């Protein structure tokens, strides 16, 4: 094997007849770290904050000043039209008031609880608890509102409201409050100009409907430099002017606080129990001997650099070179800085000039954001969200390379163009062509050749049926005789041709479609969507929660996640692995899950869905569908049409793990099929049920119903002990009739 290395000038490099590695630049050269800021959504109305529920891989929740919380799906690139929460008629928005903060409970996946920080119409701050709708995780239940506390603010001002809330690693809710533009508040034991620490799962005020929290027992009993007892006040730290944004380092648990200064310094403080940060007696760094009770900021900067600090996050994302660096910005200048720990201190780096903005510019940053993978975002109050894609320095800088002409010759070659407008010719053999930055020509030649985008700093959009590509390092690339693609670490869209293609999408939540031909498609890491198209395809979801899709097929399909080799119509010959979800066609499909928690979506057509074990979600879509969750606590949603919900044993929907039917509609002809259940296990043979309405059980073989809150429960007794062995939950309140069943 021969390795040929160019430089940053224009190179013509030709390989041998063996398997060569060819670089159009010097991979041993060095470069500085860079940041790409890409606008992922626009049209928001004064967005102030971005956060996610714990572990949610796709959804970004954006807080708007006017009182809306919206959901942006990073995988699809779409912002939902219906707000997650709408309190627009309950908030004051003048000055620095509004809907300011949002935090999800650590157990949100089960409790569905989240918390908001807002200015009510009287101008005071409320911290509220809500839950999402049980039937729709994309909508808040307005009726679930519980007021955690109300913090009184001076009526003479609309500024210095703070606005951040977040849960610490200890499970308690922390809140950052401003001093209300009254300087003395920060050095008192009221709740203004403070960091609060509250236990929202306890209630020290049972006779006060407006206060539903307790101060944790290990909260500080006193605050440095402030006389009196802080016990029971909820105060964790004091001496702050307007701590607008704060965050916890997800690895160390340290609390970073960005405190907006008055006329001299902006501060970054490290949260400590009982600490007093000195406002209004100090601003910025001070002589500790003069103020022994106060805690100095870990960083401060003067008015020449900015006038309103925006606290950010310690980076814990995938890019190793930035690990542990604290990213922050400034509302007035939109600069991007980091603080990097070094030998007991913190070094400041300004990345503003090293940030390439696509879809910008970035103006007035009220917040940064962090997703489940540790990737960072910038919120622009003008209505946009920017994703930050970080690239390490210290290695080669392929982008500085000029255009090269690189030829592989014979053998299975690896060719890397680096920067510039390169021409990569694989020629003979099965080659891997990586054009790098710049609009490149990738000419595969003979053999099965790959376009490689593993190092792209942004997602790529690649279509093997087209000549010209787009997105990330693929932007402007032109293909000839390319049969395979290696994707980037971002959310790629990759489409095959009508031939036999191969795709390895890489990390990220990717969308891959093979079109016709016998394709080999791998989603790799991330939550991927893969559609093989016609042909006998080999598809692997990889890690993450992945969906195999048969949307667009000309006829119905039979797909069984419990087997690798598919034998049913439509999917015959496909080989599946690593998938949790199935999306069917618009025809009559049979979709079967496996032992995992599956999402089976039938789409249009008269579909039959069966979940097997696991807590599954079955969505029939349009058409007259039949669905059976089998074991596990399943969610069944028939959709439009006359749907049949089926059970063959009470073990498939026990009282302690009952299935939930989301949309029973008698008017559409929906029914419950219990005919396959032996209604009386004390007798031989298979017995049928008798419907007794709301009456109590008197014998085995009876089915009754009861309304419990916002649900209707169908109860089954099969052994004569007058207790329900089986239960089916219905979303909504119904008067159940015998005609609703097949008994």
Automatic annotation (TrEMBL):
Main location: secreted
Cofactor needs: Ca(2+)
SUPFAM superfamilies named among the record's database cross-references: beta-Roll (SSF51120), Soluble quinoprotein glucose dehydrogenase (SSF50952)
GO molecular-function terms, A-Z: calcium ion binding
Basic and acidic residues bias: start-end ranges: 422-434
Peptidase M10 serralysin C-terminal domain residues: 543-741
Annotated localization: Secreted
Cellular component terms per the entry's GO annotation: extracellular space
Glucose/Sorbosone dehydrogenase domain residues: 46-349
Region (Disordered): 397-438, 505-537
Alphabetically ordered keywords of this record: Repeat, Secreted
Biased composition (Gly residues): 408-421
Protein name: Uncharacterized protein
Species the sequence originates in: Microvirga aerophila
């Amino acid at each position: 094997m021969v390795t040929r290395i160019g430089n940053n000038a224009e190179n013509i490099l030709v390989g041998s007849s063996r398997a060569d590695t060819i670089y159009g630049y010097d991979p041993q050269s060095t470069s500085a770290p860079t940041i790409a800021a890409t606008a992922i959504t626009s049209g928001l109305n004064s967005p102030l904050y971005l956060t996610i529920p714990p572990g949610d891989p796709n959804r970004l929740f954006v807080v708007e000043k006017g009182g809306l919380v919206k959901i942006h799906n990073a995988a699809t690139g779409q912002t939902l039209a219906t707000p997650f929460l709408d309190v627009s008629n309950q908030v004051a928005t003048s000055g620095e008031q509004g809907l300011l903060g949002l935090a999800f409970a650590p157990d949100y996946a089960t409790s569905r609880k989240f918390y908001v920080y807002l200015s009510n119409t009287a101008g005071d701050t409320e911290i509220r608890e809500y839950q999402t709708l049980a039937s729709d995780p994309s909508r808040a239940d307005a009726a679930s509102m519980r007021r955690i506390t109300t913090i009184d603010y001076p009526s003479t001002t609309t500024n210095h409201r703070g606005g951040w809330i977040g849960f610490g690693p200890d499970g308690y809710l922390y809140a950052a409050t401003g001093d209300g533009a009254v300087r003395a508040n920060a050095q008192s034991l009221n709740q203004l100009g403070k960091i609060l620490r509250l236990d929202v799962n306890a209630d020290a005020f049972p006779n006060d409907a407006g206060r539903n929290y307790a101060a944790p027992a290990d909260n500080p009993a006193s605050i440095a430099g402030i006389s009196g007892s802080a016990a029971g006040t909820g105060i964790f730290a004091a001496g702050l002017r307007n701590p607008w944004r704060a965050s916890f380092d997800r690895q160390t648990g340290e609390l970073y606080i960005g405190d907006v200064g008055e006329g001299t310094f902006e501060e970054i403080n490290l949260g400590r129990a009982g600490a007093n940060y000195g406002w209004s007696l100090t601003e910025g760094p001070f002589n500790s001997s003069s103020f022994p009770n106060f805690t100095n900021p870990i960083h401060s900067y003067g008015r020449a650099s900015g006038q309103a600090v925006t606290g950010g996050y310690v980076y814990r994302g995938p890019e190793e070179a930035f690990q542990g660096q604290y990213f922050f910005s400034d509302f007035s200048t939109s600069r991007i800085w980091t603080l990097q720990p070094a030998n007991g201190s913190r070094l400041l780096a300004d990345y503003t000039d090293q940030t390439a903005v696509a879809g910008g510019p970035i103006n007035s940053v009220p917040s940064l954001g962090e997703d489940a993978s540790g990737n960072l975002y910038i919120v622009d109050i003008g209505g946009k969200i920017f994703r930050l894609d970080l690239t390490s320095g210290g290695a080669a800088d392929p982008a500085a390379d000029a255009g090269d002409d690189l030829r592989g010759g014979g053998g299975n070659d690896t060719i890397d163009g680096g920067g510039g407008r390169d021409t990569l010719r694989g020629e003979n053999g099965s080659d891997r062509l990586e054009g790098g930055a710049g609009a490149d020509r990738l000419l595969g030649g003979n053999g099965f050749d790959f376009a490689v985008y593993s190092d792209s700093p942004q997602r790529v959009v690649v279509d093997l049926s087209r000549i010209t590509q787009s997105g990330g390092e693929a932007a402007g690339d032109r293909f000839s005789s390319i049969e395979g693609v290696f994707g980037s670490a971002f959310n790629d869209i990759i489409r095959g041709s009508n031939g036999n293609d191969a795709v390895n999408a890489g990390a990220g939540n990717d969308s891959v479609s093979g079109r016709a031909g016998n394709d080999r498609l791998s989603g790799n890491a991330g939550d991927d969507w893969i559609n093989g198209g016609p042909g006998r395809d080999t598809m692997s979801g990889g890690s993450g929660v992945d969906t195999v899709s048969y949307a667009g097929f000309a006829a119905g399909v039979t797909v069984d996640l419990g087997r690798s080799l598919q034998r049913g119509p439509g999917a015959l010959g496909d080989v599946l692995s690593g998938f949790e979800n199935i999306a069917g066609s618009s025809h009559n499909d049979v979709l079967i899950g496996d032992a995992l928690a599956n999402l089976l979506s039938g789409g249009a057509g008269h579909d039959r869905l069966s979940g097997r074990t696991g807590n599954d979600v079955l969505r029939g879509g349009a058409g007259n569908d039949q669905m059976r969750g089998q074991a596990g606590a399943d969610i069944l949603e028939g959709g439009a049409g006359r749907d049949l919900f089926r059970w063959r044993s009470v073990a498939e929907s026990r009282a302690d793990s009952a299935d939930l039917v989301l949309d029973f509609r008698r008017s559409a002809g929906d029914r419950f099929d219990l005919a396959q259940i032996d209604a009386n296990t004390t007798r031989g043979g298979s017995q049928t049920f008798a419907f007794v309405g709301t009456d109590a059980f008197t014998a085995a073989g009876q089915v009754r119903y009861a309304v419990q809150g916002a649900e209707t429960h169908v109860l089954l007794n099969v052994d004569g002990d007058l207790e329900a062995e089986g239960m089916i939950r219905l979303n909504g309140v119904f008067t159940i009739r015998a005609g609703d069943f097949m008994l």
